[in-house]
Amino acid sequence: MTKHRDKNGRLLRTSRGGPAKGAAYLEDYAFLAHGLLRLYAATGDAKRLNQARELTDRMIAEFSDPDGGFFFTADNAESLFVRTKDPFDGAAARRE
Q1: Contacts of 5 (CB under 8 A, 6+ apart)
Q2: Selection from 8, 15, 62, 56 nearest residue 32 by Cα
Q3: Has residue 73 been placed in a domain?
Q4: Residues 15, 16, 17, 23: what is their CA dihedral angle, to the nearest 10 degrees?
Q5: Residue 77 maps to a domain
Q6: Looking at the domain assignment, is residue 78 inside a domain?
Q7: Which residue has the higher pLDDT, 82 or 51?
Q8: pLDDT-based confidence at 19, cuts 50/70/90?
Q9: Within a domain: residue 53?
Q10: What is the structure's pLDDT at 95?
Q11: What is the mean pLDDT of residues 34-62?
Q12: Domain limits at 62?
């Protein structure tokens, strides 16, 4: 939560042998929020619940499409030819 965030609180994707860099993708926010929720469930530490909520709120604000769904990249990420999104959530492909 401290090393992989920029000065504005956005997540950064990678860090290997140096400072974190690269804007995080939708899945990075989702997996981290999920991990924080699991940590909250295991420990009861409300700080983790608040961190998960903060990440989720930012994820909705920066990745959501007004027409529905979520883009893979944030609205403030590097300019791309097109912001892609998957019209399906992949639920059929994953069976747990």
Answers
A1: 11, 12, 20
A2: 56
A3: yes
A4: -30
A5: yes
A6: yes
A7: 51
A8: confident
A9: yes
A10: 47
A11: 96
A12: 25-85
